[in-house]
Amino acid sequence: MKNHSGFTLIELMVTLALAVILLTLAIPNFRTMILDNRLVAVANRYLADANLARSEAIKRGVAVQIVANTGGWTQGWSVKLASAGTVIKVADPLKDNVTLTVNGGGAVTPFTFNADGSSTATATLDVCDSNRAGERGRQISIALSGRVGTNAYTCP
Question: Count of domains in the chain?
Fold first, then answer.
């Protein structure tokens, strides 16, 4: 009697059927994870640039602004000196249907950080995916103390 190694046709079909079932369940969740990570990445980019503006204001001893590019926050933003207008950094426009708006409307408002690191106004900005209304998003908050933070948010 010979020893045969390998799979039978039935074993192969059962294995393929299980693989298809697992992939059918996993792929939609993986897509949601990718979309959620895009929102987190945008929020973190803004957070880093706002912290850069604050640290530059403290380091240089002058007011520094983070300003939306022409067309609104979704078109990117710039970090620049408030008085001289010297640009320190420019952020690229957002991609993949991700939007960034000032809470309460799409106002194009510059946020100014004073030489002591404080902000001239409080604000919240919403980071959402325009294709997924009512889904998870991120909210960026700027406090009068100059602290910038993010938290989870349900997009309108």
Answer: 1
